[in-house]
Specification:
By secondary structure, the protein is an alpha/beta fold. Helix content is 39%, strand content 15%. The protein is built from 11 helices and 10 strands. It has helices at 30-39, 57-66, 86-102, 131-152, 169-178, 190-195, 200-206, 221-230, 234-240, 253-257, 283-296, and strands spanning 9-12, 44-46, 70-78, 107-112, 155-158, 185-189, 211-216, 218-219, 243-244, 268-271. Helix 3 (86-102) packs parallel to helix 4.
Length: 301
Amino acid sequence: MSSTITRARLGSAPDSWGVWMPDSPRQTSGTRYLDEIAQAGYRYMELGPYGFLPTDPVELADELAKRDLRVSAGTTGGAFHRADDFETIKEEALATARLAAAVGGTYLVLLPAMYRDLFSGEYLEDKELDVEGWNQLIKSIQELSDIVAEETGLRAVFHPHADSHVETQSQTYRWLEDTDPARVGLCLDTGHIEYCRGDSAEIIRRYPERVEYIHFKQVDPAKMSIVVDKDLGFYDAVQLGAICEPPGGVPTVESIAREMHRLDPEVFVIVEQDMFPCHPDAPFPIALRTCAYLRGAYLAR
């Protein structure tokens, strides 16, 4: 393996601990998450939903310093294709970005709204946007990225997501062609691309200059066949175990590692294994194994 691969910065995120919301009795605590992500061997992390961790920058910085943890990014999102939602999205994004910037973060990950209800799987909108909706999505993402950069210094990266209007490989390519690389980058979530039958490694080969941030995730192909056959929503897919522990799924670590020389040698590789809801004792052993495995496979340091 090239030495550039081992310089990538390995981390994880709250959803690997079953955290999807700022507060839920079905989730672990912020303190336990911080303790366990550090004990698992990670040194980089995302903040997760705004409010899950302390929102006072001094308090949060102190908690991070106690555990020698560093923040890679904050995460926010919304219905970018709806112009009327922009002001609300902007305020939520700026709150997250300010907090991330105050504790040394570099990126803000932008998530599109889902066209299905997260928990029931009910279709709320068409799977495809019309021309007006697509153009608004592009406009809102780029304007928000500009605002975030100007006010906080963070670089925005957009995250294609299953059950959203930018979920497939072809939709991701369309998004890349329609956006200005000077304004916004791509967060490549390998699991979400493969969830939609895409090829993450091919995206890196085709657009290496746009892949600025990576979420490493794997899906179980056999369980994904059930998801497709039964038209399951994302929550039900997670319950089924379609998002799996490495090295049990696709894309393989090797397929991504082979392409890493094309990227910034210090790119963040943030592990995500959606597990909501899960027993609070379940995430740590998985995180321990995953961190050791990915380091052993030279995906990141």
